[in-house]
Amino acid sequence: MNSNRNIGIALSGGGVRGIAHLGILKALEEIGIKPNRVSGTSAGAIVGALYCQGLKPDEILDIIINTNYFKFMRPAISWTGILKMDSLEQLFEVHLPENTFESLQIPLNITATEISRGKVVYFSQGELIKPLMASCCIPGIFDPVQIDGKFYIDGGALNNLPVEPLEGRCEDIIGVNCNHLHEEDNVPNMKRLIERTVIMSMNYNVYTRKNKCDFFIEPQGLARYGVFDIKKAADIFAAGYESAQRFITYNEGLIKLGEVNQ
């Protein structure tokens, strides 16, 4: 890739809402922006891994729509989670057959949370799929993922916009958050209250990193989609794409960045 500036993109977690990242990546590609490095958490790590493998945003969307992720899950009979993620390994192996960071076309950092120390860990070399599974391991829903004797859960628990691996390596950093929370006058029930509280917590650790980004893209109102609302995949993709197009229109600096990298 011919590039005059090193561009890094940080992709947030957010379950199915992470499909918005694909629409944003497509819009950025259309103006000549393709990252030199990607950093992702949870859904952002999944999108990042497939994108860095060399798949186009539309191809990744087709994979997501045509794959029933739930058939790869099975009950976890333990106190640590409801579902096991082991069977998801088979799905990732289909699209990431070499299973190493080094085999990717674009360098990738994956964020996970190590339980015993309560610290963020960034993976960028060696085996790829296990860290990928760890990064999207939602606590309380999935069993923690074990890597080298340590247990990991969703990276978004502590860092849902992992810009840190891009700092010092990239001249321009684009942050993308797919969990914008719209105003809601009346929270109708306890389920909605819990969901809204979790998203507020996730967004807090996103917004504390916002000033580290040269550009920050956040499609509006995506928090209205559920974490597993896969039937809305095409709508979420479109929301990301249209939001990025609007953002590009009003950000001359991003347009110029695309021009110098073509």
Automatic annotation (TrEMBL):
Instruction: Name the PROSITE patterns for this protein.
Output: PNPLA
* Sequence ranges assigned to domain PNPLA in this UniProt record: 9-167
Asked if the record carries the keyword Transcription, the reply is no
Q: Please indicate the residue ranges that the annotation assigns to the motif GXSXG.
A: 40-44
Q: Which UniProt keywords apply?
A: Hydrolase, Lipid degradation, Lipid metabolism
- Where is the catalytic site? S42 (nucleophile), D154 (proton acceptor)
Motif DGA/G residues? 154-156
Sequence motif GXGXXG, residues: 13-18
InterPro entries, per database record: Acyl_Trfase/lysoPLipase, NTE, PNPLA_dom
Superkingdom is Bacteria
Q: What is this protein called?
A: PNPLA domain-containing protein
